[in-house]
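Anyone up for a design puzzle?
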C-alpha cells in the first residue's frame, strides 16, 4: 500500500510540475506580448495605388453541408474590396445534402454580376478539408490564397489589409485575429471567446513578435501559393492540417506575419456537442502534430533553442489537459494518503506550484481580456467571474480532451468531424431545428457524470478528514464536470 502511495504521489507531483512549466512558458509569452506593444511595424508593403503592384488573389471557401451559413458567407465574400480582374473565388463544396443545390444557385447569381466565382465539387471527400484545399490549388490562378471557413464574415477591407504585407518575399502566411459574432449568446460562447482571445493575443503575438513558430489557424488567413508547394502541400494525416502545414513551412524558413489588429468575425459553437467535436479535433490534431513534428524541430540546425522550446510546448498545448486530468483524479486518493502517512505530509506542499500556475494564468489572461474588453474596476470584477468560470469548465472538459490527446499520441485514426454551423448571432436566434445536430449522447458524457460524483466524494472526504486544502479544487472539478454532463444531456434533447 505504501508503494502504491509513492507511485500516486509521484504521478500527482509530475502532473503539477508539467502544468507549472507550461505556466512559466505563458509568462514568457506575456512578457513578449507586452514588449511587442513598443515595437513599430516597419514591414514592406505593396503600393496598391500602383495597379502593377496589386497581385492576383484566389479566395478558397471549403464548405461541407453548410445550409445555414453559406448564403451569408458568399454574400460577404462577394463584397470584398479588390479589383475583380485580379480576384477569383473557389467554393470548394464537399456537401452531401441538398445545400449543394442552394449553393449553386447563389454562385450562379453572383457570377452574373461579373464576379469570378467557381463551384468546385468532388465525388469523394478524400483528405477532407485538406484534400479539398489541395484539389482547388491545382487550378488556382492566384499568387496568394486566402482561406475562410463557412462561419467567417470578413470585413470588406480584409484583402486590402492583408495582401500588401506579401511584398516581403520571405513571408509565406499572413494570419488575422478571430472575432466573435455571438460572444455573449451564452456562458458557453463567453468562455470559448475568452480562451480564443488569449490564444489570438497573448500566444500568437507572444510567439510571432520573437520570430517563434506560430500557426495558421485554418481560416481568416492568406498563404503564398509558392509557400504551400515548397512546404509539401496540404496533407491529411492529422486532424489539424493547418498546424501541420504551418510547421512544415516554418521549418523551410518561411516567415509568418500575424496581424492582431485585423479582426475577422466568426460564429462560435452554441451547443456543447459542437464545442466538444471542435475541441476533440483540435486537441487530437495537436497531439498528432507533436508526434509528427517533434523530432524535426529538435534536430533542426537552423532553429534557435528558444524557438524549439516554444515550438515543442506549442505542439504539447493539448497535452496539458492530460496533466490536469491526472492531477484531478489523483487528488482524491492524495487526501487519504496525506491523512494516513504523516511522514509524507511535506510532499503535499507541491500543490503550491499549481496555485502559482493558476495565478500566472490569471495575470496573463487579464492582459488579453483588458486589451479586447477594456480595463477598469468593473471590467476587472467581470474578468474575475469569467476567469474562474472558464477555469472550472476547462477542467470539466479535461477527460474528453485527454481521450483526444491519447488517441493522437497512440496514432489512432479518426474521421474529420466538422463543427456544425448555426447562423446564431443573437439571443433571438434559435438552433433547435438545425438538421446537423446529433441527438446521440456520447459515452464520455456518462463518465463525466460519474466524475462529477467522484469529486463530490472528494469534497466529502475533505470534510471527513477536516482537511480543506483541496476543497476549492474539488468544488471546481465537481462544478466543471457537472456543467459538461448536464449541458450535454440537455442540449441532446
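Challenge accepted. My sequence:
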Amino acid at each position: 500500500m505504501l508503494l502504491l502511495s509513492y507511485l500516486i504521489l509521484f504521478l500527482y507531483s509530475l502532473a503539477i510540475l508539467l502544468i507549472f512549466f507550461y505556466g512559466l512558458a505563458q509568462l514568457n509569452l506575456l512578457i513578449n506580448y507586452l514588449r511587442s506593444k513598443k515595437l513599430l511595424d516597419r514591414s514592406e508593403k505593396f503600393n496598391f495605388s500602383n495597379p502593377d503592384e496589386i497581385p492576383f488573389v484566389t479566395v478558397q471557401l471549403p464548405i461541407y453541408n453548410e445550409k445555414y451559413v453559406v448564403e451569408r458567407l458568399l454574400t460577404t465574400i462577394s463584397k470584398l474590396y479588390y479589383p475583380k480582374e485580379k480576384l477569383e473565388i473557389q467554393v470548394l463544396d464537399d456537401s452531401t445534402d441538398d445545400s449543394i443545390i442552394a449553393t449553386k444557385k447563389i454562385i450562379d447569381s453572383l457570377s452574373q454580376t461579373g464576379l469570378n466565382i467557381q463551384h468546385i465539387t468532388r465525388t469523394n471527400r478524400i483528405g477532407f478539408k485538406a484534400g479539398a484545399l489541395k484539389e482547388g490549388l491545382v487550378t488556382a490562378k492566384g499568387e496568394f490564397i486566402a482561406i475562410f471557413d463557412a462561419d467567417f464574415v470578413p470585413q470588406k477591407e480584409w484583402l486590402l489589409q492583408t495582401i500588401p504585407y506579401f511584398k516581403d518575399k520571405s513571408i509565406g502566411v499572413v494570419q488575422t485575429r478571430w472575432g466573435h459574432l455571438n460572444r455573449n449568446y451564452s456562458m458557453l460562447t463567453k468562455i470559448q471567446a475568452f480562451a480564443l482571445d488569449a490564444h489570438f493575443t497573448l500566444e500568437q503575438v507572444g510567439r510571432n513578435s520573437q520570430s517563434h513558430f506560430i500557426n495558421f489557424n485554418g481560416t481568416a488567413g492568406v498563404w503564398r501559393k509558392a509557400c504551400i508547394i515548397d512546404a509539401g502541400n496540404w496533407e491529411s494525416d492529422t486532424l489539424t492540417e493547418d498546424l501541420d502545414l504551418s510547421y512544415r513551412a516554418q521549418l523551410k524558413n518561411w516567415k509568418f506575419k500575424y496581424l492582431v489588429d485585423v479582426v475577422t468575425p466568426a460564429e462560435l459553437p452554441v451547443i456543447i456537442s459542437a464545442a466538444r467535436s471542435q475541441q476533440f479535433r483540435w486537441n487530437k490534431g495537436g497531439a498528432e502534430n507533436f508526434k509528427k513534428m517533434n523530432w524535426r524541430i529538435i534536430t533542426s540546425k537552423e532553429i534557435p533553442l528558444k524557438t524549439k522550446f516554444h515550438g515543442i510546448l506549442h505542439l504539447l498545448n493539448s497535452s496539458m489537459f492530460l496533466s490536469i486530468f491526472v492531477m484531478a483524479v489523483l487528488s482524491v486518493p492524495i487526501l487519504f494518503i496525506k491523512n494516513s502517512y504523516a511522514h509524507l505530509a511535506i510532499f503535499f506542499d507541491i500543490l503550491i506550484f499549481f496555485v502559482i500556475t493558476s495565478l500566472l494564468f490569471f495575470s496573463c489572461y487579464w492582459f488579453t481580456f483588458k486589451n479586447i474588453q477594456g480595463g477598469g474596476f468593473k471590467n476587472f470584477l467581470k474578468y474575475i467571474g469569467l476567469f474562474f468560470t472558464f477555469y472550472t469548465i476547462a477542467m470539466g472538459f479535461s477527460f474528453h480532451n485527454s481521450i483526444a490527446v491519447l488517441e493522437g499520441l497512440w496514432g489512432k485514426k479518426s474521421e474529420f468531424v466538422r463543427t456544425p454551423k448555426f447562423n446564431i448571432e443573437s439571443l433571438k436566434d434559435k438552433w433547435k431545428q438545425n438538421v446537423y445536430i446529433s441527438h446521440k449522447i456520447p459515452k464520455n458524457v456518462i463518465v463525466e457524470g460519474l466524475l462529477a460524483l467522484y469529486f463530490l466524494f472528494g469534497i466529502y472526504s475533505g470534510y471527513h478528514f477536516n482537511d480543506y486544502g483541496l476543497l476549492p479544487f474539488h468544488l471546481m472539478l465537481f462544478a466543471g464536470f457537472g456543467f459538461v454532463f448536464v449541458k450535454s444531456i440537455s442540449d441532446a434533447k
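A detail worth pointing out: The radius of gyration is 24 Å.
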